[in-house]
Amino acid sequence: MPTTLNEQQETIRKFRSIANFPTVIGAIDCTHIRVKKVNADGGQLYINRKGFSSINVQVVCDADLKIMDIVTRWRGSVHDSRIFRECRLKQRFEAGAFSGILLGDSGYACTPYLFTPLLNPTTPQEERYNRSHICTRNTVERCFGLWKQRFRCLLRGMFGDIETAKKTIVACAVLHNMAIDMREDVFPGERDSIEQYSSEPIVQRYIAPSIRGNIRRRQFIETHFQ
């Protein structure tokens, strides 16, 4: 994650250039990486709602699709909101380490530092907020697509032991960032649609916003989307 004020301001500037959504420092989401069936005690906890064994990987990316933060320790049955609720990054936001906010989907609770889309926008301002939010947050979906195109093991699944799988996922994230820094394209002939390799997205249940998050989002919309 960007640490200095200059780094944070540059990250915010790049996100704002996408759809004029201010003060964004990262886009957050989770993706399921398939693993082989775990037969040990607790193995059933790796089975996600699509019915296959996986690791639920949390990623925060920047506007350049680089992975700034990654969590790989959670089993597939664990909900996205719990992964964020118990991660160190959340503690850093609550401690005021960053000047910007995260954008997430409705699988997360809306908080003062993580904004989600409005479930039922009723005004032109709320509709503008939602359109800008969706377009800006889409960077993390594009990040997943590019990451998995570069490293097809993330699409097909990991078939070694769980600990090796976790380390491999992190290594792929580091190499993905290096490839972006070096402006390296995906391999020729591998620009085919990622959907044919990946399973259908897992629909997240709606998480009600916190009272503080709701108030902060309302103030934000009134200030920036009039």
Automatic annotation (TrEMBL):
A GO CC term attached to the entry: nucleus
Homology family: Belongs to the HARBI1 family.
Subcellular localization: Nucleus
Annotated GO MF terms: hydrolase activity; metal ion binding; nuclease activity
Keyword vocabulary terms for this entry: Hydrolase, Metal-binding, Nuclease, Nucleus
Major subcellular location class: nucleus
Cofactor section: a divalent metal cation
DDE Tnp4 domain location: 28-177
Any Pfam family the entry gives: DDE_Tnp_4
Name under which the protein is recorded: DDE Tnp4 domain-containing protein
Lineage: Eukaryota, Metazoa, Ecdysozoa, Arthropoda, Hexapoda
